[in-house]
Amino acid sequence: MILTALAAIALGQAQLTGNALLDDVQHRAVEFFWNESNPETGFTKDRAGNFKKDAYDVASCAATGFALAAYPIGVEHKWLDRKQALERTKITLDHLLTTHARHNGWFYHFINWKTGERAWNCELSTIDSMILLAGVWQARQYWHDPEVTRQADAITDRIDWKWFMRDVDGKPDHEFFNMGWKPESGFLKATWAGYCELLMIYIQAYGASDVRTDGWDKITKNLYTYNSPSQSRDIQVIEGGPLFMHQMSNVFYDFSNKRDRDGWNYWKATQNATLENRAYCIDNPKGFKGYGAGFWGLTACDTPSGYSGPGAPPRNESDDGTVAPTCALASLEYTPKESMEMAESCYRDHRDAYGRYGFSNGINPSKAWVDPDVIGIDLGMMLLGVEDARTGLPHKLSNSYILVRRGFARAGLRPAPGSNDGPIHMTK
């Protein structure tokens, strides 16, 4: 693909702001999903070099899901040719059905991007399979193509939902989903039972199957109040640490002005988590270089010492001065002014961290470090989050699917006009 004149400007010294900057970061993210997806299989690399070509050959099913959701955005903005994007989508869906390593309809986390074979002795992953499925459903609803619909439905129909509803000992008929499974050792000693990115797992399962739904009401949600000196206010959040835990489900699914049967508003929870994340960086209790209103966003990302999970209180023990710029932009729907301020400041002050696919995954000014890579799922959350704020396309596609609407209904999520302005939790 060829960079547009707009993207070419960004390679120079011109300062992009506002919609021009959003266009550019989104365009570059679409470039990642197009260039770093194997044209023969459609499988998308887990990560790629942001400043030069790399030799990575491992794809992730989650990044592939984001690629399927990225192509409609690219077509709508005229960054991708519609016919080519549709053909790539069909190739991807075909290889998900035929060559991607899987078991009982669930997908292995990492695979070889050419062969689809399991990589790194990885797990069969519930959350990554569900990110992939969310992208499959986005493609189904966007293309209105008989072949895409057939392929997407076949992927959904192959999933044995009840098989993965097991406790930490592998006992079946559990209210929660187990986190993963390996053929060598069986089910992982962990379940999706505490509030995080898990919301999408249950919405998709409840919509596409008749599994029990009592787990939703039992998801642990601990409220925490952060007292911010800089903001002179208390910010209440659901404990979650890294910000992606509050964003992952929300970029696909629209929780705005809804409450579940126990009174929780997950849109407000994400907005508050974003505001707390920003406030903590402004307060900067550890004294890291660069932190402030124009440099914030703590989430799971690359750091100078390796991949880690920085977050805001009360789970800020991993905060080492590394900020993930895409994380702040992924919350554009919730904090439009604050996220835009971060993007513009970061583009101006950290131009060395802006490469062929946009902002690098992590930046640590205290250690004079810029990540040489970008990571597919983080670019994906940013791309969809920005599009949700600008046009609402990802949410519109999800809302149009009967299985998503059924999933919301079975989870007890109902319209609650004005609840975005209320508390996170409203007791009965």
Fold topology:
Blueprint: H1 5-10, H2 18-35, E1 47-49, E2 58-60, H3 61-76, H4 82-98, E3 102-103, E4 106-107, E5 110-112, E6 124-125, H5 126-143, H6 146-157, E7 180-182, E8 186-187, H7 199-208, H8 214-218, E9 223-228, E10 233-238, H9 244-252, E11 258-259, H10 266-283, E12 301-303, E13 306-308, H11 325-329, H12 336-349, E14 354-355, E15 358-359, E16 363-364, E17 369-370, E18 373-375, H13 376-390, H14 393-399, H15 402-410, E19 414-415
Antiparallel strand pairs: 1-18, 2-5, 3-4, 6-7, 7-8, 9-10, 11-19, 12-13, 14-15, 16-17
The gist of it:
With 428 residues, this protein is an alpha+beta fold. The protein has helices spanning 5-10, 18-35, 61-76, 82-98, 126-143, 146-157, 199-208, 214-218, 244-252, 266-283, 325-329, 336-349, 376-390, 393-399, 402-410, and strands spanning 47-49, 58-60, 102-103, 106-107, 110-112, 124-125, 180-182, 186-187, 223-228, 233-238, 258-259, 301-303, 306-308, 354-355, 358-359, 363-364, 369-370, 373-375, 414-415.
